[in-house]
């Protein structure tokens, strides 16, 4: 024992694991826009204020597949949405976006997050929705609402749904007997 140092027994410590998420595949239709926009998505677009939208091969270094592209000729909004079926659990989704938008609002059921989008061409950000917890199997609306000023443009791709894994609790230290250092 070290002079003047006394060690007592420590209680057990329970530690909850950090949140972990698993991607849920095959729930969002055409989540990567590899098919035409009409495949899986409903759209609300004011064509008087939108110069063009399309799904196309991007030709970008950081995303070489198909994307949803938009260009606003004047102030407007674009809504892309679909209804998905989910089981009980906690969910969130993400999108990859580049370009400009006043806001990109992400809706998952009643949960809403608002994000600014201002990046250069071919500079992608991943944006996450807020979490939604549901207690039983249900249909949920997943929506992207873009608020655009005149001449804003951008691309969206790779929409991914995640489900929170069950938290595990484990005992890190059961106990430490007294006089360990004796």
Characterise this structure.
- The chain has strands spanning 13-16, 21-24, 42-45, 50-57, 66-72, 76-86, 89-108, 111-118, 125-128, 132-134, 138-148, 153-164, 169-173.
- With 182 residues, the chain is mainly β.
- It is globular and about 80 Å long.
- The N and C termini lie close together (4 Å).
Q: Summary?
A:
With 182 residues, the chain is mostly beta strands. It is 0% helix and 55% strand. The termini are close together.
3D shape: globular
Mean pLDDT: 84
Pick out the low-confidence regions.
none
Strand content: over 45%
Largest sheet, described in full? 11 strands, antiparallel
Helix-strand pattern, N to C? EEEEEEEEEEEEE
| DSSP helix fraction | under 10%
What is the terminal-to-terminal distance? 4 Å
- Rg is 24 Å
Helices and strands in order, then pairings?
Layout (H helix, E strand, L loop, with lengths): L12 E4 L4 E4 L17 E4 L4 E8 L8 E7 L3 E11 L2 E20 L2 E8 L6 E4 L3 E3 L3 E11 L4 E12 L4 E5 L9
Antiparallel strand pairs: 1-13, 2-12, 3-6, 4-5, 5-12, 6-11, 7-8, 7-9, 7-10, 7-11, 7-12
Attribute tags:
globular; 182 residues; mainly beta; two-stranded antiparallel sheet; 13 strands
């Amino acid at each position: 024992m070290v002079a003047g140092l006394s060690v007592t027994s420590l209680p057990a410590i329970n530690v909850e694991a950090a949140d972990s998420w698993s991607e849920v595949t095959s729930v969002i239709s055409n989540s990567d826009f590899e098919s035409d926009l009409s495949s899986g998505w409903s759209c609300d677009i004011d064509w008087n204020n939108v110069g063009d939208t399309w799904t196309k091969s991007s030709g970008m270094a950081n995303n070489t597949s198909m994307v949803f592209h938009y260009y606003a000729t004047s102030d407007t909004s674009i809504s892309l949405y679909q209804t998905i079926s989910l089981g009980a659990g906690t969910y969130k989704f993400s999108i990859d976006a580049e370009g400009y938008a006043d806001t990109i609002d992400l809706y998952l059921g009643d949960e809403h997050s608002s994000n600014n989008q201002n990046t250069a061409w071919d500079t992608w950000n991943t944006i996450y929705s807020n979490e939604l917890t549901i207690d039983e199997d249900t249909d949920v609306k997943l929506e992207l609402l873009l608020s655009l000023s005149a001449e804003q443009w951008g691309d969206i791709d790779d929409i991914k749904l995640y489900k929170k894994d069950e938290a595990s609790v484990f005992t890190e230290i059961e106990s430490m007997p007294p006089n360990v250092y004796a």
